[in-house]
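Exam revision sheet. Question 4 asks you to relate a sequence to its structure. Input first:
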Amino acid sequence: MKILRKTLLASLLALPLVSFAAPEVEVGFSPEGSAHQLVLKTIEGARHSIRMMAYAFSAPDIVQALGDATRRGVEVRVVVDKKRNADKAGQRAIRDATAQGVALRTNDRYTLHHDKVIIVDDDTVETGSFNFAPSAERSNSENVVVLRGLPEITRQYVAHWQSRWDAGEPWASR
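Answer key, structure tokens:
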């Protein structure tokens, strides 16, 4: 019996150590402010890449956070709904973002390109109803869900994002 225990213990000790991080979920709501703060926190946490899909894209502070990320060396790529962002606020946000090094494409292949997603470092997905616009920050009832450490979900969002990016057109200043 002692030999069996020693053999079992030696076998267990020889196995490689595997660490599994527990998935994390955070939520935020607007107009209370926690959704807006969680969006900014997600962008500010990026170290390598940000992939974003937006219906409304006109919040100056979010554009600034994306620009700050590019200056930190983060690759930032955004695809937005073409029709929704044709107004002055949307065009200003697009110009400001691209002037700061953000790669941006517009998509008009759907009645609405209604996705509102940020994928950070292929590990974090932010999604929900939150439009990247001042009205979402101050006026609308909105929600944000951030998922970390769920690689299969992240993989699916990356594939969805890639399909929308591929179908988009590079934004060109008028």
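Marking note for examiners. The mean pLDDT is 91.
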